[in-house]
Amino acid sequence: MIIDGKQVAADVRADVAKKVSELKSKGINPCLAVILVGENPASVSYVTGKQKALAEVGMVDRSVHLPESTSEEDLLKLIDELNNDDSVHGILVQLPLPKHINEEKVIMAINPKKDVDGFHPVNVGNLVIGRPAPLPCTPHGIIVLLEKAGVKTSGAHAVVIGRSNIVGKPVSLLLARKETNCTVTMCHTGTKNMAEIVKQADIIIAAAGRPNTVTADMVKEGAVVIDVGVNRIPDETKKNGFRLVGDVDFDAIKDKASFITPVPGGVGPMTIAMLMQNTLEAASND
Ligand code: GUN
Known about the structure:
It is globular and about 50 Å long. The protein is an alpha/beta fold. The protein has a five-stranded parallel β-sheet with strand order 6-5-7-8-11. Strands 1, 2, 3 and 4 form a four-stranded parallel β-sheet that branches. Strands 9-10 form a two-stranded antiparallel ribbon. It has ten helices and eleven strands. The structure holds guanine. Guanine binds next to strand 4 and helix 6.
């Protein structure tokens, strides 16, 4: 079965929209500032998607698009202004940033209460020890997809491929929480015999950022396959000159997996939907 992330994300946004209108009737106008520096095509496209979702759920969009040449100092100044602006509930700086800006410094400058990505070390730490924290959007979206698809996670062996701060590490933590109750193995570029490990998985989370990382011979019959990859492949038949593929060989795996997410239309829309939910929560906690 193909998991329809577009539909699940639309349901989450509809629920958020309802709660936004309730907050508005109490005089709170949920507001997100998305900061984009430069013109990275993938980032421009993600930010456009976030702005579209903000409009759909009825939130205030305070997004700022800065030139590539923006200095670290100016970016930090903008974050400081937004931190001190009570009408702004969430701040998201789209990553990656241009090379002359220190990403870690920028993430640490965001007020943890407005950190709707859940990337600030205080929020990461709270997540690790089970204290309330905004859940990182993509990992949380994956958990919601598993839930909505009715996947039995308790006791399942989940193999995560990738150890990034944005996906691999946090999704491993979420899968291992009592609520989800998976046994988690985290694979990465240093992993020996990856195929053998992945073959043992009841649930595969592919977040390597490389097409065909997971091939059919690595997938156990009936496994659940969640594809987090968003890779641009040159394609002359397309208007924009590329097509998107994930990290798994979808066509070869779709009949072997019990559930699989497509790319596009799987995890991607969930990331944005969970961002709307985190912004709503930041505004509710105000
Ligand atoms: N770049 C890729 N994914 C993300 C994300 O979830 N948040 C931010 N801020 N940047 C990203």
